[in-house]
């Protein structure tokens, strides 16, 4: 389940991302996605893609993050499950870290639970690429 170091801050999502995530959640065998999406939507401000602030992690954004306890930053692209490849730096939105990244601001610290149950925190230090900032609304 996602969590943050602050009490349920609002996050931003684009209308297109919400529609695509709802499609994923409606797939058979994805009950955890529906639960995650409900949790995210309860805290989300949903905006047209052209109105999303450029410092927000959206789908297909490339981000630089610092994981707590690590000295080397990680570069990841937030993708849909079919495009995920951890070794190539493409993180699924359905993964614990992917779900935690979606909709947060550059500079924000977020927490998430690792598959083994341990808590982990990371800071989004930069957004190197956000599709909406480049006028790309249909990726």
UniProtKB/TrEMBL annotation:
Residue stretches making up the Transcription elongation factor GreA/GreB C-terminal domain: 53-128
Domain of life: Bacteria
GO molecular function: kinase activity
InterPro entries the UniProt entry points to: GreA/GreB_C_sf, Tscrpt_elong_fac_GreA/B_C, Tscrpt_elong_fac_GreA/B_fam
Alphabetized SUPFAM superfamilies for the sequence: FKBP-like
UniProt keyword list: Kinase, Transferase
A matching Pfam family: GreA_GreB
Protein's recorded name: Regulator of nucleoside diphosphate kinase
Organism: Cupriavidus pampae
Designated gene of the protein: rnk
């Amino acid at each position: 389940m996602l969590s943050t170091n602050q009490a349920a801050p609002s996050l931003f999502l684009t209308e297109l991302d919400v529609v695509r995530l709802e499609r994923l959640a409606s797939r058979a065998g994805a009950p955890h996605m529906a639960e995650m999406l409900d949790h995210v939507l309860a805290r989300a401000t949903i905006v047209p893609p052209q109105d999303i602030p450029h410092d927000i992690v959206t789908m297909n954004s490339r981000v630089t993050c610092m994981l707590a306890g690590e000295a080397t930053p990680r570069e990841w692209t937030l993708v849909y499950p079919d495009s995920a490849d951890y070794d190539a730096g493409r993180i699924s939105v359905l993964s614990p870290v992917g779900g935690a990244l979606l909709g947060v601001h550059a500079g924000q610290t977020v927490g998430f639970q690792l598959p083994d149950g341990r808590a982990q925190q990371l800071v989004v230090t930069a957004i190197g690429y956000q599709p909406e900032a480049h006028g790309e609304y249909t990726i």
